Amino acid sequence: MSITIKTPEEIEKMRIAGRLAADVLHMITPYVKAGVTTGELDRICHDYIVNEQQAIPAPLNYRPGPGYPPFPKSICTSVNHQVCHGIPGDRVLKNGDIVNIDVTVIKDGYHGDTSRMFFIGEPPLKARRASDVAYEAMIRGIAVVRPGATLGDIGHVIQTYAESQHCSVVREFCGHGIGRKFHEEPQVLHYGKPGTGVRLVQGMTFTIEPMINAGGRSIRQLNDGWTIVTKDHSPSAQWEHTVLVTEDGVEILTLMPEDRG
Ligand code: MF3
Ligand code: CO
Ligand code: CO
After folding, report:
1. Which of 62, 114, 208, 242 has most ligand 1 atoms within 8 Å of its beta carbon, as the pocket-test mutant?
2. Which one of 17, 150, 155, 256 has the fewest CB atoms closer than 10 angstroms to its CB?
3. Residue nearest to atom 11 of ligand 1 (CA)
4. Annotated binding-site members for substrate
5. Ligand 2 being an ion, which residues bring their Cβ within 5 A of it?
6. Which of 182, 190, 207, 222 to mutate for ligand 1's pocket (most ligand atoms within 8 Å of CB)?
7. Beta carbons within 8 Å of 246's beta carbon, 6+ residues apart
8. 251 by DSSP, 3-state: which?
9. How far is the CA of 178 from the centre of ligand 1 (A)?
């Protein structure tokens, strides 16, 4: 499959799916407190998506390819030095933790994918910095999206900013086209050179989701087949939006309710 250009009807469905994904992050916010387990957060999100939104949690039983066991839960929860794809379970969140919650819903056949960091109490400066840098890197990446810009332009601004802040960019995972499929072409790298790679066209939808480490960029996968951690155990952070290339710029499809017009 090549890059899909969404029709106006498909874009409307992407807007709905994106809004629902952001609504889940809004809904779960008051529960993300010291003492809660990541498994409890998963159950609350699962029930909300299935019962209130009448949507499908895309991660549940998802297999990106051979070699991956099906993902066993409905959201990803990645704590402290976990980079991404953390599996919710018995872990109790405690003061000083940072956690990424990554939500992907399917509504009417279309996907919305968004994640954000949460702080439990007051985390160490290094961990808060990783989150702040990941957020700003994502925003800078989104800001260059318009017809005629390239994927390399996006990767370049993200990498340049993150490295200027003495953080590193994880290379092994990237943003992705999104639509009827969870992970479509193209791959949206969070590093690169200006003017290189695919040229953006109105109607493309993809995610920008930089994973930023406070230390080195090396990662490894845990034996659960999913969880990615930093090799040096430095804190890692990620923020993610699903975006649409518009006639003259970009529309963020996964804005939180308080940021919508
Ligand atoms: N939501 C992740 C992303 O942003 C993918 C998670 S795959 C899963 O692409 F199976 F772990 F859910
Ligand atoms: Co994604
Ligand atoms: Co995601």
Report:
1. 62
2. 256
3. 85
4. 85, 183
5. 113, 207
6. 182
7. 146, 202
8. strand
9. 12
Beta strands in the chain (DSSP E): 56-57, 76-79, 82-84, 98-107, 110-119, 168-169, 175-177, 184-188, 205-208, 211-213, 219-221, 228-230, 236-238, 241-245, 250-252
Return per-residue pLDDT of the chain as tens, 261 residues: 799 999 999 999 999 999 999 999 999 999 999 999 999 999 999 999 999 999 999 999 999 988 889 999 999 999 999 999 999 999 999 999 999 999 999 999 999 999 999 999 999 999 999 999 999 999 999 999 999 999 999 999 999 999 999 999 999 999 999 999 999 999 999 999 999 999 999 999 999 999 999 999 999 999 999 999 999 999 999 999 999 999 999 999 999 999 997
Residue 71 Cβ contacting ligand 1 at under 6 Å: yes
For each of the domains in the chain, give its residue range(s) and CATH number, in order of start.
Answer: 8-259 (3.90.230.10)
**Residue 240: CB within 6 Å of ligand 1?**
yes
